Amino acid sequence: MTDTRVTVHAAARIDEIEPALHGHFSEHLGRCIYDGMYHDETADGEGFREDVVSLLADIELPVLRWPGGCFADDYHWEDGVGDDRPRRRNLFWAQGREEVPEEPNTFGTHEFLELCERIDADPYLALNVGSGDPQEAADWVEYCTYGGDTELADRRRANGRDEPFDVPYWGIGNENWGCGGRMSPEQYAREYRRFATYVGTIDHLLADQDFDLIACGFEDHEWNRRFMEEVSKSAWGAEFPLDHLTLHHYYGRTMSIVETDDEDKYDQFLVEALEMNEHIERIAAAINATATTRDIGVIIDEWGAWHTEAVSETGLEQPGTVIDGLSAAAVLDIFNHNADVMTMGNIAQTVNVLQCLVETEGEDAWARPTYHVFDLYSPHQGNDAVRTTVDAPVRDAERTDDDLPLVGASASVGEDGTYVTLTNLDVRGAHEVEIDVEGADPTAVDAQILFEGQEPDAVVDADNAASFEPAAFDVGVGNDGTLTAELPPSTVLGVSFE
Question: How far, CA to CA in Å, does 260 sit from each of 60, 130, 402, 464?
Answer without folding.
Answer: 34, 39, 21, 21
